[in-house]
Amino acid sequence: MMKRGQVTIFIALAIVILIVIALVSYYFGDFTVSTKEISLPHNVLKFKESRDRCVENSGTLSLLLLGLQGGYYEIPEDSLNLGDVRVVYLADAGENRLLSMNEIEQNYYRLFNEKLADCLIVPDNLNVVVNKPSVRIDFGDATNVKVKYSMKVNYGGREFDLSDDFEYAYNVRFKYIHESVEDLVLKEIENPFVRDLSFIASSDMDIQIFDAKGLSVYAITDEKSLIDDLEYIFIFGVRK
User: Fold this and answer.
1) What's the pLDDT tens digit per position in 88-144?
2) To bridge 166 with a disulfide, which of 78, 98, 147, 181 should be the other Cys (CB 3.0-4.6 Å)?
């Protein structure tokens, strides 16, 4: 049986341990290394870190491009050419060319794989066996992306399994933006020469319209949708 003084010492020691854990968590909360990573050779670990950044950047860039390209992966040849930017006509002489959410999901997957291939650089001293990643995007109140990536690396006569699951949550109301774009496209098709300013004024997003002869360009900025503190933008064109 422990004496009262011993109990007090153990309680004090427990409090000190909790304080140390709290301080370490506070100052090093973003610094985590798994036992799996510790066991990796330096070259393999560096490649894994580069791969992880590549996956994250591909997810972010693909979502941004969906907005800048009107939801498209391959920009149609008859799009409006503004030099470095080509604007997709979603209302084209009475034709509705707005893609469905399912089609946009597929385009995200294609964009993701393209960007991943662009940034994934394999050093000459590594032999990498990789399968195409499984990518799932969920357009809800926010936008969530899940990636399953199967990858093995052979180095120094050993095989290392770098397969991993990635999850990213973006504060982007893409589904909401798409619904607003759909309303605007339908209104342009129904009344191409009469604009419903009351609908535009009532939106909680910033809708800018640039008119030229026989065409218009819409730039929708949603201040409630942010990626790295950048407001999300969706751009599309209208041809009368």
Assistant:
1) 999 999 999 999 999 999 999 999 999 999 999 999 999 999 988 999 999 988 999
2) 147
Residues 169 and 235 in one domain: yes
DSSP one-letter code for 70: T
Helix, strand, coil shares, percent, the chain, to 5: 40, 30, 30
- Three-state DSSP at 8 gives helix
Domain hosting residue 10, numbered range: 1-32
**Residue reference for tokens 């490649």:** 47
Tally of structural domains, the chain? 2
Cα gap 25→33, rounded to integer Å: 13
Q: Are 152 and 225 members of one domain?
A: yes
- The amino acid occupying position 120 is L
What is the C-alpha to C-alpha distance for residues 72 and 66, in angstroms, rounded to an integer? 6
Query: What's at 90, amino acid-wise?
Result: L
